[in-house]
Amino acid sequence: MSAYRLDYLDQLESEAIHIMREVAGQFEKPALLFSGGKDSITLVHLALKAFRPGKFPFPLVHIDTGHNFPEALQFRDELAATIGEKLVVRKVEDTIKSRQLTEPKGKFASRNALQTYTLLDTIEEFGFDACIGGARRDEEKARAKERIFSVRDEFGQWNPKLQRPELWNTYNGRISKGENVRVFPISNWTELDIWNYIKRENIALPSIYFAHERTVLEHEGQLIALSEFIQLDDTDSIVTKKVRYRTVGDMTCTAAVESSASGIDDIIREITATKTSERGETRIDDKVSEAAMEDRKKNGYF
């Protein structure tokens, strides 16, 4: 009798599907946070494998800062329509008005921190007790600390010193009233794993992930897409370069990388050769301080 073996992508896929089914079994009102980026697109693909031919046991939820790349938003809407699943969009701009929040100022005025308020309001509005997201441990130091089932208190806050053990793939989703859990099915994946899986599964992505010509601002060694959301100075260097995006966040805080990678094989070769993580190379918001991400997560950020 031949031995049944899974390669490493099969193992990662199996673990992620198991986690998603655990969410469906343990929680009453889960949600999948979906931005139109490669990691959340991979989550949707995994959810299709986990639950089809049935419907998802959760809606897709996007917290829209208003500073997103148009390519990602278009792909978000098209994918949700194609698979026939419910998409809930809540806008940070509406939260700013209703809560009378102060808009950030500066050259790259990001609403990244403000989306925490919108996320927490959305969780309260729908009564979500679990939110599935595409964070991975290889992205950033604070994310490397976090469990797959990450419990948040009634204020949405995370305490890195109070986390539950996860032995033998056993996940404890028991929570008290008002608490919720952030769930990370691809926590053990790397950026290279994501791209190898996308290649194997032939997963469609927004064009922004592949090399294209774009007018960018050269700022402190980074290439920032021109948009109405950044403030230009007379001394700024504006150039047109062939670039792609390793990660897709807001236009105000996500830099492009110079690249000629027009296909997935080219991207895999680039990632294999690089020594810098995707967030380390491209995310301006993580450079505010050494603990920028951890501080945001403690306050309720995803």
Give a short summary of the structure.
With 302 residues, the protein is an alpha/beta fold. It has helices at residues 8-26, 38-51, 70-83, 92-99, 115-126, 141-145, 191-201, 264-273, 278-282, 292-298, and strands at residues 30-33, 60-64, 87-91, 130-132, 149-152, 180-183, 212-219, 222-225, 237-244, 255-258. The strands form two sheets. The protein has a six-stranded mixed beta sheet with strand order 3-2-1-4-6-5, with helices on both faces. Strands 7-8-10-9 form a four-stranded antiparallel beta barrel.
Architecture overview:
The protein is an alpha/beta fold and 302 residues long. It has 2 domains: 8-193 and 291-298, 3-Layer(aba) Sandwich (Rossmann fold), CATH 3.40.50.620; 206-287, no CATH class. Helices cover 35% and strands 16% of the residues. It is built from 10 helices and 10 strands. It has helices at 8-26, 38-51, 70-83, 92-99, 115-126, 141-145, 191-201, 264-273, 278-282, 292-298; strands at 30-33, 60-64, 87-91, 130-132, 149-152, 180-183, 212-219, 222-225, 237-244, 255-258. Strands 3-2-1-4-6-5 form a 6-stranded mixed beta sheet, with helices on both faces. A 4-stranded antiparallel beta barrel has the order 7-8-10-9. α1 packs across α2 and α7 (191-201) runs antiparallel to α8 (264-273). The chain is globular, with a radius of gyration of 19 Å. The chain starts with 7 loop residues before the first helix and ends with a helix. 42% of the residues are buried.
